[in-house]
Amino acid sequence: MLDTTRAVDLVTVILITNAITVLVAQVYLVPLLTNTPLGQRITVGALIFAVSQLLFWINDTASAFWWGLVAVVFSIAEAILLPNLSILLDRLAPEHYRGAYLGASTLVVLGLSLGPFIGGALLEWWGKGVFTVMALFCLSIAILMLINKSKINLRLDK
User: Fold this and answer.
1) How far apart are CA 7 and CA 125, in angstroms?
2) CA distance 142 to 39
3) Coiled coil: which residue ranges (predicted)?
4) How far, in Å, CA of 70 to CA of 67, rounded?
5) Rounded to whole angstroms, how far apart are CA atoms 40 and 43?
6) Which of 25, 36, 41, 67 lies at a C-alpha separation of 20 to 30 Å from 149?
């Protein structure tokens, strides 16, 4: 079990690593993935997110290096997935509802503000199993993208 000081140190490492990795990764990933189909970018991002959740799950160390490494994997997934989900929403939304769809998508800010509280409570109640559930959710996104690939491509081509 971590003491409070060590936990604060690890959270600091994770947050700083996340911020730096997202900023640096987007500089390199955006040009690299430009010619990759949107659905494929989302699928890859979701799969990397799933891997990061499993890495958090198997982590039994208080090593700042390990937590930072897992944060890099998580952050790369974030840099790929989050902008592309917004692009997908923009392209799939009917033109006359686009503003409403994008406005509703900003509710993610509510999740960002409540996330630490809810995540902490889930970890307290269910322990590291939460990461397995999150990995399954990420895998389900990838599977749904693959299952609906042709339908999504039809909508995007309109």
Assistant:
1) 18
2) 9
3) none
4) 5
5) 5
6) 25
